[in-house]
Amino acid sequence: MSTDVFPGIRLYLMRLVCKQSVLTLKELLTGCLSSQIKKATRFYVKAIEKSSPLPIISQEEVTRHRSLKDGVWVTYQGGVYDITEFVSIHPGGEKIMMAAGGAIEPFWSLYAVHNQEHVLEILSEYKIGELKAEDLKKQSTFKSSDPYSSDPERHPALRTNSLKPFNAEPPPEILADSYITPTAFFFKRNHLPVPQVDPDLYRLHVEGLPRGVLTLSLEELKTRFPKHTITATLQCAGNRRSEMNKTRQVKGLNWGFGAIGNATWSGAKLRDVLLAAGYGPDVAQWARHVQFEGLDKEITGSAYGASIPINKAVSEEGDVLLAYEMNGKDIPADHGFPIRVVVPGVVGTRNVKWLGKIVVSAQESSSHWQQKDYKGFAPGIDWDTVDYKSAPAIQELPVQSAITTPAEGSVIDRSEEMLTVKGYAWSGGGREVIRVDVSVDGGKTWKEAKLKSSDKEGDQTSPPLGRAWAWKLWEITVPLPPEAQELELICKAVDNSYNTQPDTFGPIWNVRGLLSNAWHRVKVKISEDDDEE
Amino acid sequence: MSTDVFPGIRLYLMRLVCKQSVLTLKELLTGCLSSQIKKATRFYVKAIEKSSPLPIISQEEVTRHRSLKDGVWVTYQGGVYDITEFVSIHPGGEKIMMAAGGAIEPFWSLYAVHNQEHVLEILSEYKIGELKAEDLKKQSTFKSSDPYSSDPERHPALRTNSLKPFNAEPPPEILADSYITPTAFFFKRNHLPVPQVDPDLYRLHVEGLPRGVLTLSLEELKTRFPKHTITATLQCAGNRRSEMNKTRQVKGLNWGFGAIGNATWSGAKLRDVLLAAGYGPDVAQWARHVQFEGLDKEITGSAYGASIPINKAVSEEGDVLLAYEMNGKDIPADHGFPIRVVVPGVVGTRNVKWLGKIVVSAQESSSHWQQKDYKGFAPGIDWDTVDYKSAPAIQELPVQSAITTPAEGSVIDRSEEMLTVKGYAWSGGGREVIRVDVSVDGGKTWKEAKLKSSDKEGDQTSPPLGRAWAWKLWEITVPLPPEAQELELICKAVDNSYNTQPDTFGPIWNVRGLLSNAWHRVKVKISEDDDEE
């Protein structure tokens, strides 16, 4: 290593003794040393920091560091951290800048995914000082109570992927046991705390139309517009991420194959509400998107948001609902009480819950979730090369299916002779699943499963063309192959555009782990009968 | 073997000597022997027949055999054939029954695929007698001239898959050289002889609507309705069948990857014509399909036919045209002069050429091509188990792409250092191709190709959502891997529903060899530079 480094370190040590800010060293390094040398220097600096007292820094000084140019500082439990270099590699993206110059605790109580040991370890690497004792005292007034404390109770059978915000899925083996997924077992995918909404005070605002804002109470939504009911499957874009993760690690909640459910939804048609608000041929000239805002809010006050294309929103056959009932009852808190948008055939994230505002616009929603999250990228793209503008926001999802029973690793008794395999299949855009192929020999041969369009035995009715919003359940019973000791079961579905699922995950791998729809594979063992007769 | 058989054979021999019809034996066998014994008997009978003169049979007797119950007899070049048992395994389906009781020659001149040695071999196994000389003489009056004699001239560069009817594709390496496929090189897929249509006498009949039949001349179609122009890709359902054939032999023309082309089409909107003919909300109550009949006819006089769902036909955004121009000129004879239906986003076969009749109906077209041909089945289904009713008629096609250059087996000079790969990509249903991934290492790693929406350099414009009717061309230039001596190039496309192509052909194999859209793979060699400097 170049000995040029040492004068810098000596200078640093000197200044430490004088209790001056470390930033002075930082400025020095940034100005004159190559990146390789900087790295080496940082190594020495860290070693020294560990054994030395850190400078005391005032809140005023911290507050001055709120940009990449001036540096990004935050405080946590009385420590001061310079996270400038971490901003670009923060898994949550630029949101981290909201915390610049202030305390990070309230954000972490909102985005509770941070409450993990390895997050603290990462943070500790960036520590540059201690916050002045009197400033630390003042901070306590900022401290909010846990915004998740009013979240509803959930069924203990759910498999929790994240507590705050709450994200959970049912045990997948129950999914194909009921055509309609019981509400309690319907997967929960919250991005923020569940807002408390008083139904009497609830107002929906419809904006962006020449007539001005239309404001509707819950009662008006229920009485002024005809009530429509559809059965529709909602699926999280991250369903089956855990399988993609096995190829190569992606970023996101580790969903199994239960982030999908099928329910009946009742409410007003979005089309009817937009027409009442003044949508017409003139608006159709310039409007391209309908934006939705939730009542679930970031700590900054900005709402969860998403948008869908205008054609889907106003089409007679689009069946987009402002739903106030799920499975025949008021929509429960976790699913968007009192109103959620149901956009059948479209990825879950656009089905905005706790709907507060509708905006007709020439533009897509500018929300993080529309612009920088739910998009699919090529397998060669990683976090260093991703260009969010290069891919469209996910709307319709591709064809999907999974085996719900038997479960991975099950042991089948040879004496049973027959094996029943069950699962679900669905496609986006209202495309009907017309076939599910099942293999019990790892994909060498395939048999066609029996499809079910309801819980009624033998129901194979088809919905109107282009409006197949609900999944199909499927089942097949096959003889156990006489020789095999282990079986690899596979399913794949075909929709009525004859699209089918890709064979493997590697070539559809993407950095966010979305759109994970390769063949579902389940390995089971066959145990030999003990008593020989 | 049971000795019960021999009395039957002895009886047969006796009758042969007396020159009585073999049918008497057949009746005897059908009545009293099990199928196994029948088989054995037939073996003996065949052996005897080969060494014995066959009975003389009158046309009157032949004509009496026109059903499975009475037996199905035909004549060919003076021979009489009992093809009853062949009917169920005839590759062309039940159409064969049209020939029952008569001469097969006129059908074979229409379906010229029969003019092959192995077809004659199969036929010879069913010979049961010789036609009476005087009846054979009379047959000559049936003999028509070659119905294909007035087919148009074609470009010699086309690769012909079948001459009568004419089916041919361009050399695929030219496909990505021009965003608009030159008409002469646009693939030709005819099911029957090209009809001769006098444009002055041409009439289009629109039927099935309460107001009665609307009849339109070509002039009226051109002047009464606004002229619309779209750019749309048409693809044969059998495109890339030859690749599927390598997995396991399928039935159908051995198309390469050139049974696809992109053209501009101009004409009246089908929607406008249907509205003029009386389509409205009342009709929408019961109408489900729009049927098309071509002026190309079977020998029986029945027309080529197909249908599309009513929603596609009447939708403002469906863009279905009654086209009279292709690439700015009158549609040529091979492509449907003077009118063909262009159903963008939908499989070629529904884009009916030489359109004679439109029928609004509650039912799909009952044509062979709608009911018993262009459907996709599971890989486990073969000709013995196929149930045509079990699959829907193909309409929208799945996502597709292919590498047009370099060609399979090309040799790349190492000194070139870079390799440019080009191709096309398209998806059905108006879904836009948003990405093409290319691998030069057999699928281990992938790079994103540059998409082109026209021949204009860098044109990446998107069509309106849901109306991406035209393909995208794509191109990528990559460094030659330094060590490799052979490269496996692969491409796969992703559309805006994030559907993608399956990895391999085995699991999408189907008995008709349709919907062949697994990854396209091309192997090339790298030759080392000879002169070492």
**Strand tally of chain A, please?**
27
**CATH C-level name of the domain at 400-527 in chain A:** Mainly Beta
> Which strand order do you get reading across the main beta sheet of chain A?
1-5-4-3-2
Category from helices, strands and their pairing of chain A: alpha+beta
* Residues in β-strands, percent of chain A: 25-35%
Report the CATH topology name of the domain at 400-527 in chain A: Immunoglobulin-like
Question: Could you tell me the mean pLDDT of chain A?
Answer: 89
Oligomer: homodimer
Shape of chain A: globular
Largest sheet of chain A: 5 strands, mixed
The share of residues in helices of chain A is 10-25%
Question: What's the alpha carbon Rg of chain A, rounded to whole Å?
Answer: 27 Å
Unreliable stretches of chain A: 1-8, 10-34
What is the CA–CA distance across the termini of chain A?
A: 78 Å
* CATH arch. level architecture of the domain at 400-527 in chain A: Sandwich
Q: Report the total helices of chain A.
A: 13
Most extensive interface: pair and counts?
A-B, 44 and 44 residues
EC number (chains A, B): 1.8.3.1
GO molecular function, one term (chains A, B): molybdenum ion binding
Keywords (chains A, B): Heme, Iron, Metal-binding, Mitochondrion, Molybdenum, Oxidoreductase
Domain Cytochrome b5 heme-binding (chains A, B): 54-132
